[in-house]
């Protein structure tokens, strides 16, 4: 059974650019959540999607957005990148009434 | 929103049993307790989840007292490869995302 797949694995962007990260959940999982992990702030919740609808949103500026497609794949977009956006971005999927999240390996974003 | 408190770090030796206790005084009726393990530059990995009493799987046991205000993750006979950060989360498993808050976790160091 394939796990949660995140692409790309590593990314380097320049301040002011935008970036799109992709997440393919485990087959049959309809809930996808995104987290940002930094050494200073730890794991912080960004947003959650379920059946193409954003169900929950964390405390991040509007530069951070996401969407989910009908096949449950999800993308997150960060516009006008700042140095502080450098982080490991993690995607997780869960089944309905599930037994916890399954996380992907993450995308390491570096903003220079 | 239930919050958790765990020790920041713990040391152990190979072959010992390790118990990590998590406090969650404000746990709600619908909340489950879930533990994750994370290695550097990887996504957290689900270890175990429970609601009350004791749950055991092939890698760990989870002990939850009757008042559910705390829980203890027990790792039998740890090895060097168990060196990682362990997170305790509480949340309504039918409504993940914003309700699923990662604290700083417990950094476990297993020594030879």
Provide structural commentary.
The complex is a heterodimer of chains A (112) and B (112). Chain A is mainly beta. Helices cover 0% and strands 54% of the residues of chain A. Chain A has strands spanning 5-7, 10-13, 19-24, 31-38, 42-50, 53-57, 64-68, 74-78, 87-94, 102-103, 107-111. In chain A, the strands form two sheets. In chain A, strands 2, 4, 5, 6, 9, 10 and 11 form a seven-stranded mixed beta sheet that branches. In chain A, strands 1-3-8-7 form a four-stranded antiparallel beta sheet, with no helix packed on it. In chain A, a hairpin with a 2-residue loop joins β5 and β6. The N and C termini of chain A lie far apart (37 Å). The relative contact order of chain A is 0.33. Chain B is mainly β. Chain B is built from no helices and nine strands. Chain B has strands at residues 9-13, 18-23, 31-38, 45-50, 53-56, 61-64, 70-75, 84-92, 106-111. In chain B, the strands form two sheets. A five-stranded mixed beta sheet of chain B has the order 1-9-8-3-4, with no helix packed on it. In chain B, β6 (61-64) and β7 (70-75) form a beta hairpin. Chain B starts with 8 loop residues before the first strand and ends with a strand. The mean pLDDT of chain B is 90. Classes of the chains: A mainly beta (112), B mainly beta (112). Chains A and B meet through β4, β5, β6, β9 and β10 of A and β4 of B.
Question: What's the structural blueprint in terms of helices and strands?
Answer:
The complex is a heterodimer of chains A (112) and B (112).
Chain A: E1 5-7, E2 10-13, E3 19-24, E4 31-38, E5 42-50, E6 53-57, E7 64-68, E8 74-78, E9 87-94, E10 102-103, E11 107-111
Parallel strand pairs in A: 2-11
Antiparallel strand pairs in A: 1-3, 3-8, 4-5, 4-9, 5-6, 7-8, 9-10, 9-11
Chain B: E1 9-13, E2 18-23, E3 31-38, E4 45-50, E5 53-56, E6 61-64, E7 70-75, E8 84-92, E9 106-111
Parallel strand pairs in B: 1-9
Antiparallel strand pairs in B: 2-7, 3-4, 3-8, 5-6, 6-7, 8-9
């Amino acid at each position: 059974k394939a796990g949660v797949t995140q692409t790309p694995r590593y990314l380097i962007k320049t301040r002011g650019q935008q970036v799109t990260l992709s997440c393919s959940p485990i087959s049959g999982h309809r809930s996808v959540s995104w987290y940002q992990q930094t050494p200073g702030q730890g794991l912080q919740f960004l947003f959650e999607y379920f059946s193409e609808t954003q169900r929950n949103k964390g405390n991040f500026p509007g530069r951070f957005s996401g969407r989910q497609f009908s096949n449950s794949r999800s993308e997150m977009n960060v516009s006008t990148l700042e140095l502080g956006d450098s982080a490991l971005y993690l995607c997780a999927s869960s089944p309905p009434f599930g037994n916890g999240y399954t996380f992907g390996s993450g995308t390491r974003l570096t903003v220079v | 929103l239930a919050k958790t408190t765990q020790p920041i770090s713990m040391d152990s030796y190979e072959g010992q049993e390790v118990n990590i206790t998590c406090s969650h005084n404000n746990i709600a009726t619908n909340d489950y307790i879930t533990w994750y393990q994370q290695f550097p530059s990887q996504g957290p990995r689900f270890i175990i989840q429970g609601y009350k009493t004791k749950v055991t799987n092939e890698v760990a046991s989870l002990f939850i007292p009757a008042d559910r205000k705390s829980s203890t993750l027990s790792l039998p006979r740890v090895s060097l490869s168990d060196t990682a950060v362990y997170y305790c989360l509480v949340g309504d498993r039918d409504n993940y995302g914003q309700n699923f808050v990662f604290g700083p976790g417990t950094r476990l160091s297993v020594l030879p």
